[in-house]
Design a protein that fits this description.
The chain is of the alpha+beta class. The chain has seven helices and 15 strands.
């Protein structure tokens, strides 16, 4: 069966048909790579594959990282298990790109729906390149030279005692990344800030940084640069963390939502 690529919008996102993620050969991988570069987020339905096959598909794109803070699968530490329920809402209901607090943030993520609520729990994706292009010339000139400081403690340091937080900070120190990132494969430039992990802009206080961060988040938040995915059990989404941001809606309480993610290691942004 030939691969089909059905765009979800004119800007970002495409649903892929005719692919079994447990049996991707070299030619199919190249077709998927081209579609990924074109659409930035790919979606796959009805992929009833094993956990090991999920990990194996992820490894086709590069080395997989192990998240130092998030819960993981008992047999496959590369898989982050994200569970939200009536007692604990863990969905990342904020705009972000994954693990930007790393020295070498991730290339991409591949997420699987395991337990999906009857309504809600969608994920919205934004094209950070289109968001950057939507800015005025004055704003682009203003942010092009800026550097943002990314700090894991803004999310994963909450509720952790000071000794443990400092121990982890030694292992994962705050990182400097450009506010506007260049995609290493396409050369496109896009917004690379988020209010989850960015503590401030270099040379500014947090208070001075916030109006700029707010303006950039407003560009990411525009429906004109987004697509929205309605999950089902064994649906998959894979997104390029170098040029997208995403937002998991938390509109399904008190239902349960469980998703599993592998994250492909990346390189230092420039």
């Amino acid at each position: 069966m030939p691969i089909t690529v059905t765009p979800m919008t004119a800007v970002i996102g495409a649903e892929i048909g005719g692919v079994d993620l447990a049996a991707v050969d070299a030619d199919t991988l190249e077709e998927l790579r081209k579609a990924w570069m074109d659409w930035k987020v790919l979606f796959f339905r009805d992929q009833h594959i094993s956990v090991a096959a999920h990990v194996g598909f992820g490894r086709m794109w590069g080395e997989l990282e192990v998240h130092p803070f998030a819960p993981s699968h008992p047999d496959h530490p590369e898989i982050v298990v994200i569970t939200s329920n009536a007692e604990h809402q863990y969905a990342a209901a904020n705009w972000h790109s994954d693990v930007t607090w790393r020295a070498e943030p991730s290339l991409g993520s591949i997420l699987r729906g395991r337990v999906i609520p009857p309504q809600g729990g969608d994920t919205v994706f934004a094209d950070a390149t289109a968001a950057y292009d939507s800015l005025s010339d004055e704003w682009r000139a203003r942010i092009d030279p800026l550097v943002a400081v990314h700090d894991y403690t803004h999310v994963f340091g909450r509720g952790v005692d000071e000794t443990k937080r400092e121990e982890m900070r030694q292992k994962y120190p705050a990182q400097r990344h450009p506010v506007v990132r260049t995609h290493p494969e396409t050369g496109a430039r896009g917004i690379y800030t988020n209010k989850s992990f960015v503590s401030h802009l270099e040379g500014m206080t947090r208070e001075e940084s916030l109006p700029i961060l707010d303006h950039l988040q407003a560009a990411i938040s525009s429906p004109n640069v987004q697509c929205r995915f309605r999950w089902a059990v064994d649906s998959f989404a894979m997104w390029d963390n170098r040029c997208t941001q995403h937002f998991a809606t938390s509109d399904f309480w008190p239902e349960t939502r469980v998703v599993e993610r592998v994250t492909v290691a990346g390189e230092r942004p420039y």
